[in-house]
Protein 1
Amino acid sequence: DRAIAESLGIVYTARGKLTNMEQKVKHRLSQEFGEDQVFHTEIPVNVDVAQAVDYFKPVVLNNPQASGSKAFEKLTKEFLKRLAKKVKSKR
């Protein structure tokens, strides 16, 4: 028996100013996969994230106060809640 990976959801990354095209894509993904499959937390375009990549360090360690760091922390919490819910439902 092979285990099949299940998605916990879709994450919007590199979000800058919301364009009409981004709004359409976001709306379509929500329609196609369901609102519950789209994470509420979005990762913004952030120079500190790019710099952290340059330093080979996670942005949360390189610059914990950056908006990118805060978004990743929020996403992690949301991810863990979804994962716990998924594990609980499998029992």
Protein 2
Amino acid sequence: MSHNLPTHPTVDELASYLEAEGGTDSAYLRGHFPRYMRTKVEIVRNLAPGAGQRMLDVGGHWLHQAALYAVDGFKVTSVDMAPTFSLAGVQHQARELGIELVMETNLENPTAMAELAENSFDLILFSEIIEHITFNPVYMWKVLYRLLAPKGRIVVTTPNYYAWRGRAWDRKRLFRGGGGGLPVAEILGLNTYAHHWKEFSKNELIEYFQRLSPDFQIHRAVQIEEFHPWQCGAPANWLGKKLERHIPSLRPNLHIEIDLPEKREGITLNPGWS
């Protein structure tokens, strides 16, 4: 590992480093950096003393989050697809930061992750991924369950469906009968892998992991207040900020930590046909 980043870099320090070491999407980094840092604070302060630091970052993209953990002593493996991981700059940054890259072609059938050793990771970061999944994810979770070591933890972050400033509460669309979630015009009119196909409530996420396996235990599930206004359906006016401060269920982001105390029954859910 060879880099000059501090343990807790500022957004300017991280952006400058990545630009100098092969380039990055600086606008995306600057827009999402507060979320990255809040997620890291929540993870680090809730780790058990002596917890292992082998991390799998699913959806590593430009390595923005992976870098923050790598410079803090975590042994990071990052998973994503070819559009970013095949770039020479990203591969160079990974070498400099000591991040192992795993290139997947299809998360529905994650063959590259399936080749990793069992119990390889103490922590799986699934950040802003679950809302984009358009396939049945049970097999993917079987692979991730196999990779997570006993006493390990999965951390999921995702937008809150009930956010005061979220798409679901867009007043103009509500009064026009336009529904919630992703607008039809975006489904049909854009070429992107960034759609929010399904935004969850806190209770839905809890149910999601309880259904997957009786081995999973919900350690913590909270709504997070910090978020950027441009990522929401309405600006963060004084009323919205006050409501979010005092009514957690209206906050924009969800953060859930799922523990695996021991491996006994595995992923027990078997999808059927209706």
Protein 3
Amino acid sequence: MDKFNKIISNIQRVYLTENKPFVIGYSGGKDSTLTLQLVWEALSQLSFNKLINNIYVISVDTLVETPYIQSYIDHTVRSINEYGDKSILPISAYKLIPKISETFWINLIGKGYPAPSQTFRWCTQRLKINPVDFFIQDKVAESGEVIVVLGARSSESSSRSQVFSNKEEEKQKHPNRLSLHPSLEGAYVYTPIEDLSSDAVWQYLYSNPSTPWGSNNRDLAAIYQNASGGECPMVIDTSTPSCGNSRFGCWICTLVGTDTSMENLIDSGEEWMIPLIEMRDFLRTSLFPENKAKFREYKRRNGNVYFVKDTNRIAYGPYKFEWKKEFLKMLLIAQKSIQQNGPDPSYQLISIDELKLIRKIWKEEDHDWEDSVPKIYEEVIGNKFPLDFEDGIHFNTSDFALLEEICGSENLPSELVARLIDEERKLHGMSKRSGILAKLDRVLNEEWRTEEQVIAEDVGPIDEN
């Protein structure tokens, strides 16, 4: 156990000589559990008068975590705070979540962002990096500088090994082998277990099965045994590889072909998770090149059409409105099924606040005069959707049918006219209507030809070979 005693001594030296708060990233996996356990052990050996810097333990809930891990992390955060109050350590734990405007479903179902892919991995920054950055920035503002403690190991993947290699020269220059945070001023990164192997990690966890915060490491081992794949570490930059096939990744991750972890859980008896894997697999089919025209708009969200570089192929934009509605329906059906068949009848895949914001986005960006969110919710869930009071002018399905009839007789795109009306409606009743002409002008300058017209007039026939 000499190697672990050396790590504990090193943690004590860093804490005492750097004189900065620790921000410990905890993902729920074996590496972050070991790191937190070693830090707790190391600092508990110090006298009370030396524990002058706070210790913050942070976990990120992307709100699309695998259900078991979400529950496991919630329990751990509560336990750390309960046991921390009884210890001498100035330790506290926090569960971080993305801003509601940046959640997975707001972006995918609300704004129509295509499911994440290797070429458009929009989820990592919004769901994982930003919540951590906001927390660290807040603590830097309070203390001047902080040390971000991560359970990263150089042997866990070739990608991480390359990151460690690139940082080695920088760490050699620092007396405590710290590196600068990749993007945040005033933050340093410390990786105390970077040289350990996976076997060494399990060696310590099995030798010390009871954590200082009351959890059992054998329960953690059981989680790994019930599913394949590694873990998803705390992410502080986009160099971290995808963890979509990980037991500790997001259930909806489309960055990998097959989620073997979730499949193994289902095979081991957790059939209530089937709706999750079915929705993930269906979303992934929308990324196939042959399906892009089916699922996605030919225009981007700014109303313009773009083409793939050096080709005559359209670079498709957000999901079509009809599919956004279908995805919402699928999600609510999955939620209802899990509540009925899973271990937690109150489990939510999407919150009411997210549904309300999606409703607002659809009304503003998709001129959803039908008001689809409450209808879909009530159709699937069977309960009345909790509507907030709304002032102003409201249109409905019959209004849009009339609009389509009039526009059809005048050979005008009904979507264009609806957009113009919606821009006017947003400023209805306001004493100052500054900027309305510019707004209308932007709408008129968007692409209003059909996809077929754009292809025929701008690029000619598409060569599929």
Protein 4
Amino acid sequence: MEVTSFLISVASMGSLGALFSAGLAVANKKLHVEEDPRIVAVLEWLPGANCGGCGYPGCANFAENLVAGRVELSGCPVCDDYSRAEIAAILGIDATSGEKLIARVMCQGGNNEAALKAEYRGIENCTAALLLGGGDKLCEYGCLGFGDCIEACPFDAMYM
């Protein structure tokens, strides 16, 4: 009795699996959308930071709009000049250098500029200091000074 139930279960699950995979294969063929190969080529030269500095949610979206001609090559503030030249060669356009954007903290954030609300003596980590009372600065955007951002940035865009 148990062997029969087992064989029926295996046969029914196997046939359902085959039916669904055949349906997915047909849907893949019917709903396939051709993608411009230049998008993938451009995306390889973009920094991959997905920072949103260009105004798009990520590098892939920026690459799509760049290939479509809806955005300028100089729109990526993180891209270096060599990468811009390679992207321009892929797209057959002139390489324009972009203006490097620099983050500006309005309260200046440094220890000499921002007033302290408390003296923090704990784990020397920005996340730990922020979780414990919101950090030691009165300005909520001020640099806490432990350098977590420098370690996290893959582009060496910051220093202390």
